[in-house]
Amino acid sequence: MQIAQILANGLVLGALYACLAVGFSLVWGVLNVINMLHGSFIILGGYLTFFAWRDFGIHPLVMLPPVALLTFAIGYAVQYGLVNKVVTAPVLTTLTLTFGLDMIIYNLMTVGFHATPVKVSLGLGSVSAFGVRMPVDRLMGMGLALLLTGALYYVMRASTIGRAIVAVRMDRAAAALMGIRVNHIYAVTFGIGALMAGLAGVIFAVIFPVTTNLSGMYLGKAFVVCVIGGLGSVPGALVGGLVLGVVESFAGHFFGPAHALTVGFLLMLALLVVKPTGLVGVKGYE
Amino acid sequence: MMSRLGLALFAGWVVILATTPLFAENYIVRTAIMIAMYSALALSWNIIGGFTGYPSFATVAFFGVGCYVGGIAQRAGVPMALAWAIATVAVGAMAAALGAIILRLKGHYFAIGSIAIVEVCRLVISSWRSVTGGGDGLNVPLLRWHPDAVAQFFLLVMIGIMLAAFVMNALVDRHRLGFGLKCIRQNEDAADMVGVDTTRYKIVGFTLSALLCGTVGAAYASWVGYIDPTDSFQILMTVKVPVMALMGGAGTVLGPALGAAAFVILEEIFWANFLEWNRAILGAIIVALIFFLPGGLLNISWRRAARRLRGRESAEAPA
Amino acid sequence: MPTFSIRRLAPAAAFLAALQVHAVSAEDVFKIGAPLALTGGLADEGLKQQRVYRMWAERVNAAGGVSVGDRMIPVEIVEYDYQSDGPRAGQLAERLITDDRVHVIMAPFGSGHTVITATVGERYRVPTIACVASSESVFANDNRYLFGTLSPNANMTDVMTAFLQENVPDLTRVAVLGRDDVFPKSMAEATVRAAEAAGLQVVYNALYPVGTMDHSAAVSAIGASNPDWIYITGYTQDLILARRQMDDLGVTAPVVTMVTGPAYQEYTDALGSLAEGVTSSSWWHHSTTYEGVGAWPTTVSFYEDFLAVSGGVDPDYVHGSCAGALVMLEDVLARAGSLDGEAIRDALAATDVMTFYGQISFGENGMNQARDLPIIQVQDREIKVLFPPSIASADLRIVAE
Question: What is the ipTM for the molecules in this complex?
Answer without folding.
Answer: 0.81
